[in-house]
């Protein structure tokens, strides 16, 4: 299995333009025979808490049908970030598209202090089987919650994928934490982060992949968009940095 993480520069609040940008990265992943591609936290809007309620959508949003079609046609799992509407408020969520399967929504359960002004806790999806691996998801602050990573391990995950927004000030803490999770639970671990600016933060990039011993295998830079892929069976990585944005 090949897992692909993306490093994107979001277009503030513009879902349609961000969809077009995502399609370029997914094309790269397909060309490199990836089985999975995951984007950063709230990737289709940018991390913009003050806009989230207005931008929030639901599982039936037809704008997202293009991802399902690509998933069906290319046998690839796609994870994209959006705020979602619930009866209690707005959640930070990831829409997960699998080939010829109903789309699923993973919502952030553990909110960063301050996020409760704009968001409500959602419901995590438990780790799920895809092809021959079990995949566990985390959204940003959840990487710092020991109960969260233990639950992923307890449900048999082989792969841990964190979809984040990390600023220049916070990224190294997350890199340390995810490396430690990989080593403790013997899971291939990945982090997908933004570059550029989002939600008033200068995003740090450094999207990364670790092996089961917590050793860093691949890392993107701090400025450019791109993808990084790990072939789990061969323990080989590939990265493509894009110096000119897809905007």
Automatic annotation (TrEMBL):
Signal peptide: none annotated. It holds the Pfam family CN_hydrolase. PROSITE patterns: CN_HYDROLASE. GO terms for molecular function: hydrolase activity, acting on carbon-nitrogen (but not peptide) bonds, in linear amides. It comes from the Bacteria. Keywords: Hydrolase. The keyword Flavoprotein does not apply. InterPro entries: Aliph_Amidase/BUP, C-N_Hydrolase, C-N_Hydrolase_sf. CDD domains: nitrilase (cd07197). Residues 1-234 form the CN hydrolase domain. Coiled coil: none annotated. This is Carbon-nitrogen hydrolase family protein. It comes from Zunongwangia pacifica.
